[in-house]
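User
Please review the sequence:
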Amino acid sequence: MVTTAPTARDREATGRDRRQGQPPLDEDLAQRLLEVALEEAREGLAEGGIPIGAALFRRDGTLLGRGHNRRVQDGDPSVHAETAAFRDAGRRRDYTDCVMVTTLSPCWYCSGLVRQFGIGGLVVGEARTFTGGHEWLAELGVEVLVLDDPACTELLGGFIAARPALWHEDIGIGD
């Protein structure tokens, strides 16, 4: 489990602590929220896609949006799980009280989304299969909780064993 506090650099860059007045992420609640992202990942796999799921919540556990990687299904390389969940949540004025929950460490594209919109928390199901930008986000003051969830690791691991070429396409590794 990785939990980090905002850095002085982040407070200087944004003029505020992203978690100001926010309670720390609770591991038990985070595990329950991860179940929504796992449902999405399983749905993506059942559709013939890549089993990565995400959901955007308010810090109190209120679900705002959910989605899964749809790159294969839609033929659109920009539809990652996090972007689908973010779009499903709809427009908000402020995202500092929000937590992005994802089954896998977010890629740089999705990490950029968290940074761009000031999402205050990130729950990562697992970061062994792929390590994206969650450590960078933590350095910038986003509260990050890595759960190292066996169900997330097994789901994606089974997919990679069955469809390595598609996985390599997804993470940008050429033939």
